[in-house]
């Protein structure tokens, strides 16, 4: 598969503007491209598709990339098939996945990525790149017919991964606990991406980018920490 992916935990980190922390990797992903199709479907309320697209457009135009929104097309699936690259922004993962199926974009996105089209996701857009959305942190505020996602990579991702606070008196579940519960019913690995971190996938190679380690969860095994210099290629070969 000619995958060319940039899967980012979050669009904005503390003290930076929209996508600024991912500028170098974004430019590398889109080298030679002049335009990108933005899919704004993840926002459940508070900002329109038009305004969300305008936010993305402002960021990409600084880098010489023109942005169009999927909602601007009468046939969004046709827009995906003709796009130079695709970016799916964050929001609510359930809202996003439902719209991707309703607009019949799941298969076109898979096909174009298999052909080498650059794909970029943040937060919910990173969640849907995995096998399922079963490890999202979002509330299921809408019903989806399936948790099966784009399957651009054969594992799940948990963006915005948070470590347990050692001095906290909170007695609820940690992310580690919830992912362990997921693994009672599902085999695929889960990658916990901390804020500011991202996964760069090129063909059968994958590397971690950013200031933090990533926590990798395998079924029936203790969680493991991986640095940016560690080999993560096994994640593309499992199950």
Automatic annotation (TrEMBL):
Record keyword Kinase present: no
Reactions performed catalytically: Dipeptidase E catalyzes the hydrolysis of dipeptides Asp-|-Xaa. It does not act on peptides with N-terminal Glu, Asn or Gln, nor does it cleave isoaspartyl peptides
CDD domains for the chain: GAT1_Peptidase_E (cd03146)
Uppermost EC category: hydrolase
Biological process terms in GO annotation: proteolysis
InterPro entries: Class_I_gatase-like, Peptidase_S51
MF annotations from Gene Ontology: dipeptidase activity; serine-type peptidase activity
Keywords: Cytoplasm, Dipeptidase, Hydrolase, Protease, Serine protease
GO cellular component: cytoplasm
Main location: cytoplasm
Enzyme Commission numbers on file: 3.4.13.21
Localization per Swiss-Prot or TrEMBL: Cytoplasm
Family the UniProt entry places it in: Belongs to the peptidase S51 family.
Name used for this protein in its record: dipeptidase E
Classification of source organism: Bacteria, Pseudomonadati, Bacteroidota, Cytophagia, Cytophagales
């Amino acid at each position: 598969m000619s995958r060319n992916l940039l899967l980012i935990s979050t669009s904005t980190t503390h003290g930076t503007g929209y996508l600024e922390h991912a500028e170098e990797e974004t430019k590398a992903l889109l080298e030679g491209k002049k335009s990108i199709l933005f899919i704004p479907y993840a926002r459940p309320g508070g900002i329109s598709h038009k305004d969300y697209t305008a936010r993305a457009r402002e960021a990409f135009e600084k880098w010489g990339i023109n942005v169009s929104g999927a909602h601007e097309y009468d046939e969004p699936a046709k827009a995906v098939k003709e796009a130079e690259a695709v970016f799916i922004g964050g929001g609510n993962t359930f809202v996003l996945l439902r719209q991707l199926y309703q607009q019949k974009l799941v298969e076109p996105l898979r096909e174009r990525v298999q052909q080498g089209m650059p794909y970029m996701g943040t937060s919910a857009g990173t969640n849907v790149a995995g096998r399922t959305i079963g490890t999202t942190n979002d509330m299921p505020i809408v019903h989806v017919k399936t948790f099966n996602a784009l399957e651009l990579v054969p594992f799940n991702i948990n963006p915005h991964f948070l470590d347990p606070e050692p001095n906290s008196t909170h007695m609820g579940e940690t992310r580690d606990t919830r992912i362990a519960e997921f693994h009672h019913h599902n085999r695929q690995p889960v990658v916990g991406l901390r804020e500011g971190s991202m996964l760069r996938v090129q063909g059968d190679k994958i590397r971690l980018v950013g200031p933090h380690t990533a926590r990798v969860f395998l079924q029936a095994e203790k969680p493991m920490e991986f640095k940016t210099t560690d080999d993560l290629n096994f994640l593309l070969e499992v199950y």
